[in-house]
Amino acid sequence: MQEALNSRRYRYLDCTKVVRLAEYYKAERKVVVYAGSVEDITRFRSLNPRITILGFIANVREIKKFLAAGADTIRLWPRCIRLRPAFVSTVHELGKPVWTTAGLAGREELKQLIQFGVDGVLTDLPHVLMALVADIRAGRRPRKGPVKK
Predict the structure, then answer these.
(1) In terms of CB atoms within 10 Å, which end of the chain has fewer, N or C?
(2) pLDDT at 142
């Protein structure tokens, strides 16, 4: 499991302290920092080039700019993925994974996002996602309906 720190939400966040703590615990690849701008990416990269950075783009036109700055992963909104699944392929062709923010999305929406090729899902319902992934890995047809925690 990875811990995510959002530099957009926590503007008061002491980026240097976060990076130094990750280094102290040898967790640079286990802590994911959300970067909402090229400047955020540059700041984190200057502190430690090994820190994992999620490019939290607001617009798909920013994909190449964020990757050029050093983002490790690109976050796309589910709506964007559903409207233009080719954006997932575009990021993959550039050699990087795609994560999406699914919030309270249920099994069917999560299944659709996985089918579109996303590599990671940020969800408020991890038990639903874990059950779906278990079904997919076991080769079972994903169950419909609610999943117990």
Answers:
(1) N
(2) 56
